[in-house]
Amino acid sequence: MKYAHQYLSTATNLIVAYDGTMPLSNYLKQYFAAHKKYGGKDRKHISHFCFVYYRLSSALNGLAVDETIKIGVFICNDTIEDITGLFDDNWIENWKPSITERIAFVQSIHLNFNVTTIFPLLNELSKGIDAKA
Q: For every one of its 133 residues, what pLDDT tens digit does the chain have, with 9 covering 90 and above?
């Protein structure tokens, strides 16, 4: 991804400025309407960066916004090709197709990464849903 660092910077600024008074999707739509310089792919990547931050921020408590986004992108992306510009060689070498292996790598670096806090409402799941899947 050619502009990965710019996407990371924009997503970080958006998250810092976001106050939660409206849904994130509406906030992003409003931001992109006011800033016409972003094309469709730019909007897609920046939005993805924002959403992975909120998916994993509770599991990575205390980390900087940009670091949380990077870890979220590392875990949530299905391929490494798009995100190689964000990571050093150690991270690239440890990216695996299995999300379980990627999570284990992150846990080896960030010992406070707690997967159970990603979705803490396990008792609210329907009976047919496998919580470990």
A: 688 999 999 999 999 999 999 999 999 999 999 999 999 999 999 999 999 999 998 888 889 999 999 999 999 999 988 888 899 999 999 999 999 999 999 999 988 888 878 777 777 778 777 766 6
35: CB partners within 8 A, 6+ apart = none
Contacts (Cβ under 8 Å, ≥6 apart) of 114: 59
Largest CA distance in the chain: 47
Residue of 47, 2, 41, 45 lying closest to 23 (CA atoms): 47
Domain range summary for the chain, segments of one domain joined by +: 4-114
Looking at the whole model, is its pTM more than 0.90? no
d(CA 71, CA 84): 12
35 φ/ψ angles, rounded to the nearest 5 degrees: -120, 85
